[in-house]
Design goal:
Blueprint: H1 2-27, H2 32-38, E1 41-51, H3 58-67, E2 68-78, E3 81-97, E4 103-123, E5 127-143, E6 155-167, E7 171-180, H4 185-190, E8 198-206
Antiparallel strand pairs: 1-2, 1-8, 2-3, 3-4, 4-5, 5-6, 6-7, 7-8
Helix pairs in contact: 1-2
């Protein structure tokens, strides 16, 4: 499993190096082919949260953001059909109840690596919409000091599926359901029990 994470991370690093090289070539005005390729490659920054309890209540969303957030980088390769690898550093405050009326909070840090395949459904110029799905690996990194140690699996695998919109090909918003692959996937989908929560991320992208 460690090898899988290393492979994905190295692949993402290689992708970013290729994007940088292509960007430099385009800036030097090498040829039309490099410009065409540039138009099909984006990279950028993303940040977001996992909403354990889906809600439109602003106070509840703010509360969840304070205890659960992630930020990272991503690339999008392709236009109508695209692949989107992402790398996030994620922080989550977990409440632990033990003993009699005793509660503690533990900050858990992890690395998330989704690799998504997407399809652009609508392109109106100013706004476009897409759907996407793909696996996500999560690697547990560390937790804050506490009298109570949370037992975390070193690696977890989930399936993310959802969609999003792009505005001016610059601002992008994605909403995805996360299905825990460690559980019974068929049963979870049949009952729409997405126990991993809803992932919401907002990003900016550049060519």
């Amino acid at each position: 499993m460690k090898t899988l994470f290393l492979t994905i991370a190295l692949g993402f690093a290689f992708t970013m190096c290729v994007l940088n090289a292509q960007s430099q070539d385009s800036d030097n005005g090498n040829d039309k082919n490099s410009n065409n390729q540039k138009n099909k490659v984006w990279f950028g920054l993303r940040a977001g949260t996992d909403l354990a309890t889906p809600t439109f209540d602003t106070d509840e969303i703010e509360s969840q953001l304070k205890s659960n957030y992630q930020f990272g980088v991503y690339a999008r390769i392709g236009k109508k059909l695209f692949i989107q690898p992402e790398v996030y550093y994620a922080v989550k405050n977990e409440k632990i109840f033990y003993g009699q009326n005793t509660m503690d909070e533990v900050m858990v840090n992890s690395l998330k690596v989704p690799v998504l395949l997407g399809i652009e459904l609508i392109d109106l110029g100013v706004v476009s919409a897409h759907v996407m799905a793909g696996p996500m690996g999560t690697m547990f990194l560390s937790q804050s000091s506490s009298d109570y140690i949370i037992e975390h699996p070193k690696y977890e695998y989930k399936l993310q599926l959802g969609g999003g919109i792009d505005v001016l090909k610059f601002v992008t918003l994605d909403v995805r359901y996360s299905v825990n692959l460690n559980d019974n996937i068929k049963e979870e989908l049949n009952h729409l029990s997405f126990k991993s929560g809803i992932n919401v991320t907002l990003g900016i992208q550049f060519r």
